[in-house]
Design brief:
The chain is built from twelve helices and eleven strands.
Length: 381
């Protein structure tokens, strides 16, 4: 019944799966030898977004060890050889110019058309004031060599001090570091946020409402096909919905078997907001060396062994059956291939329950350490 049914959103059997075709379509890799079929979810805008995309974060200025060109090459391979159609980008990743060159190369070779790609980018923290939002998106479009993005997100619900940049030049100089508010002396200048700010770089003079209204203007200007948020909690979403003219299409958050955010998922489904997982496999640039790892968890390893799949494939399938879209990041060819091969098998109800039991509200990303705001509580290692 409605009250007792425990069947996941995406069913286990092929006949029932086909019955969901009205809501859940599929996007076949076109014009190439790639044979993967990437299902799509229909956003509240009516647009179709691939349920699995490719993450592009390679580290900060201080931590990045990926040589320039590697991310771009992996993107070209992902699109042309393996059938990826969604790219998750951000101005904060400082590589949108490299990604833009790679996308332009793919489009020039005629392997795909622009309307077959779904490109996401995100508003960086220093540009939350109304007058900075649209120019920040225009800079992203310049770097990506695109006329529009398919989805534009507020990256974090926290504004930083404004960091100047040259809007006419693609890319950013090495001296530009938005997370550290480069070219701003945070030790000597007055805190931009005043005495209530949790960190010198936090700007308390701009509200999420002001930023969201500017995001809505970006949509009206045709620079993005949809707008959304990232790292928003349920209370922040609830408040946003009291004034938003446009409901966010997506909320992108950290979620994986150790931090499942079940309440967030239920709320987003109720409100017609698609939940999308970054760090969906429970690891990434911010995982400590001694922290536990989702992919080596005995429960997931046992399921993977029984099914003859990798632990990453099991976790991505778990997300899929929950109704959560994912953007795993990798530059390894075998992982690019494996990550899309999660639609030929299903997890049983027992498998789903066993993974559900692993939840401990665990987060690998800790904004408390970055700018003093504990956006989420729980087991932080």
């Amino acid at each position: 019944t409605r009250k007792t049914c425990v069947t996941p959103l995406f069913p286990f059997h092929s006949m029932a799966f086909r019955a969901l075709a009205v809501r859940f379509g599929s996007l076949r890799a076109a014009h190439t030898g790639a044979s993967k079929i990437v299902p799509t979810v229909t956003l509240n805008t009516g647009a179709k977004m691939p349920v699995i995309g490719l993450g592009t974060f390679a580290g900060t200025r201080k931590t990045c060890v990926t040589p320039k060109g590697v991310v771009g090459k992996s993107i070209e391979d992902a699109i042309e050889q393996y059938g990826y159609r969604q790219l998750d980008c951000a101005a904060n990743y400082l590589n949108e110019d490299e990604i833009g060159d790679s996308v332009a190369n793919v489009l020039a070779r005629g392997k795909v058309t622009r309307d077959e790609l779904f490109v996401t980018s995100k508003l960086n923290n220093p540009y939350h004031h109304r007058e900075h939002v649209l120019p920040a998106l225009q800079k992203t479009l310049l770097d990506l060599r695109l006329d529009y993005v398919d989805l534009y997100l507020i990256h974090w619900p926290v504004a930083f001090a404004y960091v100047p940049y040259d809007p006419t030049v693609r890319g950013f100089p090495f001296s530009y570091e938005p997370d550290d508010c480069s070219n701003i002396d945070l030790k000597t200048q007055p805190w931009v946020g005043g005495p209530r700010a949790t960190h010198p770089k936090v700007d308390m003079t701009v509200s999420i409402r002001e930023t969201w209204e500017a995001m809505e203007m970006c949509l009206s200007a045709g620079l993005t096909k949809a707008i959304g948020v990232a790292n928003f909690t349920v209370p922040l979403l609830h408040d946003l919905l009291t004034y938003a003219k446009i409901v966010p299409a997506v909320n992108q958050v950290e979620t994986h078997p150790y931090g499942q955010q079940a309440g967030m998922l239920q709320y987003c489904q109720k409100m017609g907001i698609q939940l999308q997982a970054y760090s969906p496999l429970g690891y990434g640039e911010f995982k400590g060396k001694t922290e536990r790892t989702v992919l080596t968890d005995p429960v997931i390893q046992a399921i993977a062994k029984r099914l003859g799949k990798s632990t990453a494939q099991v976790v991505l399938r778990w997300h899929y059956q929950r109704g959560v879209c994912t953007i795993p990041k990798t530059i390894r060819e075998n992982e690019l291939r494996e990550n899309l091969d999660v639609y030929t098998f299903s997890l049983t109800a027992e498998d789903m329950a066993a993974i559900q039991a692993l939840d401990s509200n665990y987060h690998y990303l800790r904004p408390r350490d970055w700018f003093g705001l504990p956006l989420w509580d729980g087991n932080l290692g």
